[in-house]
Amino acid sequence: MRVALNIVSLFVFWVAVLSSVAQQASVDGPKHILHDELLENMLGSWRLNGKIAGRQVEHTVDTDWVLNHQFLRLHEKEVATTDKLPYEAIVMIGYDNASERYAAHWMDIFGGRFSETLGYGKRSDSQIEFCV
Known about the structure:
This protein is α+β, with helices and mostly antiparallel strands. Helix content is 23%, strand content 44%. A 7-stranded antiparallel beta sheet has the order 1-2-3-4-5-6-7, with no helix packed on it. Strand 6 and strand 7 form a beta hairpin. 7% of the residues are buried.
């Protein structure tokens, strides 16, 4: 009797899990490519100028859609003006339809230890503010 109850409990658990997976697949997945007007405006190659940590910087940025149009890839690289190692990063921006928020994966020259965080953001008009 106890074994039968455990099997039924396990079956109910797996039905719930599979139902949840099927529901998520209907909202996100390879058939739901990302179409976003704001991100579309970022496509191409451009220059990024400004101050970071109090010093003036200039970066090149190249962007394109990758992975079945699921992510906008940004390749950012500092224009070398000194002998030091220029900053470089690859950022992948996608959208999680289930939670209705953007996701950003940031990888840079500081390596895996500093690339462990995933940022999430919400769009407001013409900007997306990311938090970790």
